[in-house]
């Protein structure tokens, strides 16, 4: 898979528009930045808003399978994004973004209207296609902005996601407390439609095209089948029994499908995963450690959301029964710290290496989970100990992309970032299902809805910490890499292994 577009002709004067394009007034580029940042903010905001709303959704539809509300979207986006990025290279980035946005708007609208759990999951399947828009946004910025605007535009799009950490909790609280989960779903549907209109009206098509090559359909089906079988088998293990033949069949089938995927990737001309790059032990360790770390951390955040927002019913449910607004207030300082971590990672990476921040982040997050395991009953405990998890998460999320910059050549950056997203998505889906399986093992089912006990929350914190410990072990064995400043300068000096 290649996600790198052909470079622009360097004979263009510095700061000029790409050859064949007209230089526009400043106002045009400001509007263009807004049009590209809008869907990025909506997509990042949806994770927080829906994470907070899923407790109400589970209780409304009386389902014990609420994990699939996010899992199905994660799986679809993880498996579809590589194909859609390749299609964008061949047929046009804007064209693919528009098609994915239309599908996303339809999916979000159906979610808001869904009268049944089955239709809700079908709609969430469609929403998974929408995730490619963010992946393509950064690429199209480089293609349609003049050189002097590229850095500014990329920074605006990237930092716009900070609105999620700052405004997201408050918005989520207001919507959920005043309009219920339907209000959250309608907010996302309306803003997805606005993003589509801005994209169609203001964003030009990229003038760059990649070579038309075949799609690795077999590899995609095997990887998708492997991830789905593993996730489904883990989810059903607590219901069927871990030694049950059906559970073992799904788990074994997932492993066999993955092994077949590896064989196929070594043989096809244009693999979904570039085997030549993954043969580098350093890069493979980076992708596994950062992908597993980020995936588990996103999954572990679900525990806090469920604990805070589920009702407190003596003998049945050990949730804390906070409103969404109360929950937002408890975590606002942690959100700010999470944002600041990105600056810290950049400073350290330029002097030493982002391996330091990755290892530190994983260790701090593990401590945060273990402390929360024992202290999660009072508001002051979330205020005091919550920043540990937030700082750990911020360091890990910011370190992965920087480590990739440090480890691979410039021409392989886009491809490897796509692989990192793919691995992170699969591992996030698996870790999410592990956490929900642990919760469900100690849940009480009332009117078709799982209500979680304190023992379940404690076991979930322990499971998340154990998975992060595995990621930490991988991170410790990452071979030495260049610092970010040397990598950015494309230093020809070989990196010690």
TrEMBL record:
Taxonomically, the superkingdom here is Bacteria
Q: Where is this region: Disordered?
A: 1-21
Spans traversing the lipid bilayer:
27-46, 66-85, 97-117, 123-141, 153-172, 184-203, 215-235, 247-264, 284-308, 328-349, 356-376, 382-405, 417-439, 459-478
Instruction: State where the protein is found.
Output: Cell inner membrane
- How is this protein positioned relative to the membrane? Multi-pass membrane protein
Give the Major facilitator superfamily (MFS) profile domain ranges. 30-482
InterPro entries xrefs: MFS (IPR011701), MFS_dom (IPR020846), MFS_trans_sf (IPR036259)
Q: Which PROSITE patterns match?
A: MFS
What keywords sit in the KW lines? Membrane, Transmembrane, Transmembrane helix, Transport
- This chain belongs to the protein called MFS transporter
| Species assigned in the record | Yinghuangia aomiensis
């Amino acid at each position: 898979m290649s996600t790198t577009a052909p470079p622009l002709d360097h004979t263009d004067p510095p700061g000029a528009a790409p050859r064949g394009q007209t230089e526009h007034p400043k106002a045009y580029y400001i509007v263009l930045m807004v049009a590209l940042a809008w869907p990025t903010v909506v997509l990042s905001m949806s994770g927080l808003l829906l994470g907070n709303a899923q407790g109400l959704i589970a209780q409304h539809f009386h389902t014990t399978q609420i994990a699939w509300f996010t899992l199905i979207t994660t799986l679809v986006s993880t498996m579809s994004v590589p194909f859609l990025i390749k299609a964008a290279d061949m047929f046009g980035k804007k064209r693919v973004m528009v098609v994915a946005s239309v599908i996303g708007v339809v999916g979000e609208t159906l979610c808001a209207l869904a009268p049944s759990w089955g239709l809700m999951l079908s709609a969430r399947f469609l929403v998974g296609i929408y995730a490619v828009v963010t992946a393509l946004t950064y690429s199209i910025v480089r293609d349609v902005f003049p050189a002097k605007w590229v850095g500014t535009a990329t920074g605006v799009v990237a930092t716009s996601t900070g609105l999620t950490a700052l405004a997201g909790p408050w918005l989520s609280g207001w919507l959920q407390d005043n309009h219920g989960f339907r209000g959250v779903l309608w907010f996302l549907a309306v803003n997805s439609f606005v993003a589509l209109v801005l994209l169609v009206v203001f964003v030009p098509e990229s003038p760059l095209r990649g070579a038309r090559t075949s799609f690795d359909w077999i590899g995609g089906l095997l990887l998708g089948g492997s991830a789905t079988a593993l996730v489904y088998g883990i989810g059903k293990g607590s219901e069927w029994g871990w030694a049950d033949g059906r559970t073992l069949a799904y788990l074994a089938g997932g492993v066999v499908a993955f092994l077949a995927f590896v064989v196929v990737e070594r043989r096809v001309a244009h693999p979904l995963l570039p085997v030549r790059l993954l043969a580098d032990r350093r890069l493979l360790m980076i992708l596994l450690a950062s992908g597993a770390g980020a995936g588990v951390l996103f999954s572990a955040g679900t525990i806090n959301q469920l604990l805070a927002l589920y009702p407190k019913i003596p003998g049945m449910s050990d949730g804390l029964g906070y409103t969404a607004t109360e929950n937002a207030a408890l975590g606002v300082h942690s959100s700010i710290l999470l944002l600041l971590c990105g600056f810290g990672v950049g400073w350290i990476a330029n002097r030493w290496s982002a391996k330091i921040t990755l290892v530190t982040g994983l260790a701090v997050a593990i401590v945060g989970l273990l402390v929360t395991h024992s202290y999660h009953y009072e508001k002051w405990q979330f205020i005091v100990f919550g920043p540990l998890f937030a700082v750990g998460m911020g360091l890990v999320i910011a370190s992965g992309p920087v480590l990739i910059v440090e480890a691979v050549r410039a021409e392989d950056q886009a491809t490897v970032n796509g692989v990192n997203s793919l691995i992170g998505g699969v591992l996030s889906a698996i870790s999410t299902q592990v956490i929900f399986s642990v919760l469900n093992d100690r849940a009480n089912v009332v009117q078709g809805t799982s209500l979680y006990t304190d023992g379940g929350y404690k076991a979930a914190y322990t499971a998340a910490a154990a998975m992060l410990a595995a990621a930490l072990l991988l991170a410790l064995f990452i071979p030495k890499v260049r610092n970010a400043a040397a990598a950015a300068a494309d230093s020809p000096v070989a990196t010690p292994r």
